[in-house]
Design brief:
By secondary structure, the protein is an all-alpha fold. It is 68% helix and 0% strand. The chain has helices at residues 2-7, 17-42, 48-67, 71-83, 95-102, 109-130, 134-142, 146-171, 176-186. Helix 3 packs antiparallel against helix 6. The two termini are 25 Å apart.
Length: 207
Amino acid sequence: MQNIQEVLHYPLYDHSARIGLSAEYVILSLEHAAAVRCLLEAGIMSSAPVLLRCQFESLLRAMWVFYCSSDETLEKLETSLLTGPDQANASMPTASGMLNELDAVPLVAAAVVSLREFQTYSWKPLNSYVHSGDHPLWRQVTGYPPELSCQLLQQSNGLAFMAAMQLAILTGVNGLQKELLKLNDRFRECLPMQPEANPSATPTGVP
């Protein structure tokens, strides 16, 4: 994360609502990522998956706002920053709805594939942690194996890397994403397992 911050030391491309709001969601997502790392380090395992879902949703909103949001929704979101939460009534799609709309954006096709994979295999377990369902209760009794901590951290890092890529786009600086991709290769062990690296591996998700 320190290396990512050193790459992303540029201002946003402009002060438009689309770029500004997307950046705010990216920053929120990265803040959740930092919280996940703190919780894991402190051994507070039942709360880390809750923040992981928040991290995913913030990133998804950052991308949707930039690529798909209507000008009317952007205006309402901007208004909410001045009038306070729930005052602007800016309706936004569900997570699945946002992914469906992002499907129509060729520029983010690879990112959407990763986000869909995350949602497919992790959404229900993460919701269980959010709502104090069977998953966290079971883990409270049986314990949290070290492999789960590593998997949560890798997933959080993967989402954080995608958020960094989105922020690079928002700067408008040419070649910045390529600089980030170098970090992706350098810190491969910190990121989610790639299917091509181990064809027999099951899709990543939260047990």
